[in-house]
């Protein structure tokens, strides 16, 4: 057989591009006794394919046994036990969702209450007696008025300074 042709067929075989006839030709070559030493390592592969083709046939009982096992598995899975197990899983899923929602609601409520407690001193009344609250408010307003009057006096000083500056500008312009 032509060794160059075998080399080309092997290259095509390793690239998965051979036809069935070409693979048959390769099997025939590698099953012969005249295989060159450079291809001795891959010869058992092709011999194995040929050996399995001759001796590895499945008998007719194999299909029947497989189909019988499939039918028994199908009968087991469609029984009442399967329905109970599936129903249990469905209930467990619903219970898990409810548990997650309740837990999330609890933590959101706690966070809201914590924030509300922190804001209460600013919002809640600090005096029980309205007269006492009125007196305290009066004191706060007097303090603001006193400081406002101090600021007004300072602004008047700036006003005097501004008037002096205007007079200087007028005299310079003349």
From TrEMBL:
Keywords, ordered alphabetically: Membrane, Transmembrane, Transmembrane helix
Spans through the membrane: 87-108
Protein name in the entry: Pyruvate ferredoxin oxidoreductase
């Amino acid at each position: 057989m032509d060794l160059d042709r075998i080399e080309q067929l092997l290259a095509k075989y390793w690239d998965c591009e051979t036809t069935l006839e070409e693979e048959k030709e390769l099997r025939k070559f590698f099953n012969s006794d005249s295989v060159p030493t450079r291809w001795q390592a891959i010869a058992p592969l092709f011999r194995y394919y040929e050996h399995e083709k001759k001796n590895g046939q499945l008998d007719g009982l194999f299909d029947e046994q497989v189909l019988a096992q499939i039918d028994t598995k199908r009968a087991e899975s469609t029984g009442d036990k399967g329905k109970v197990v599936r129903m249990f899983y469905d209930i467990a899923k619903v219970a898990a969702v409810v548990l997650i929602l309740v837990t999330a609601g609890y933590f959101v409520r706690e966070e809201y209450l914590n924030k509300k407690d922190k804001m209460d001193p600013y919002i809640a009344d600090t005096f029980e007696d309205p007269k006492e609250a009125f007196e305290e408010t009066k004191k706060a307003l007097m303090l603001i008025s006193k400081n406002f009057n101090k600021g007004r006096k300072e602004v008047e000083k700036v006003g005097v300074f501004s008037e002096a500056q205007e007079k200087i500008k007028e005299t310079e312009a003349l």
